[in-house]
Amino acid sequence: MGTYRQTVVDLDASAEEAAACGGRGRTWLETHGYIRPVPWQDGVAYLAGPRWREAVDLASWDWRARTTGLDQEPCDELTVITGPTVFYALSGEPLTAVCPRCRNASCDWPGEVLDTWHTTGVADLGCPACAHRTSLPDWEWAGDVLAFAYLGYQFDDWPPLSPDFTAALGQALGHRIRVFAGKI
Ligand SMILES: [Zn+2]
Known about the structure:
The chain is 18% helix and 33% strand. It contains 3 helices and 11 strands, in the order βαβββββαββββαβ. A hairpin with a 2-residue loop joins strand 2 and strand 3. The protein is globular, with a radius of gyration of 18 Å.
């Protein structure tokens, strides 16, 4: 069946502030009852909290989710991802990089920059049209299929997150966010 993974990516948190910012966001989620901490092995796992239904769009989800007396919510873990990460949508679309300086769009870019970003958290890409080099997170991608960022909130097997909820999380963080979703 696979896992339905939705990731709310913080586009603005820097490498230095990702951990602290991630902790703030998780506290916000817990304070509002969207998640709850559960002891798990040597640490803590975060599962759906008492108000998880208010974070999701149940209309498009499984009928069981609407049963209020249900013991077992249809949500798995919330994981806060920190560190340089390539967030992506499984769209099957070509990965078209759009230069933030001259708006040239090109699919012809070296894939090695993904590894460089992942390993070092610093990578830039040169534009084939204007030759300007721009840091990878500042590039745009047609269809918003990629994001290079240091912080993401990964919801596994939650019903579709409601836009109001993700906007409120972004507001709490004070940062721009983008939501990626897909089966993995
Ligand atoms: Zn350019």
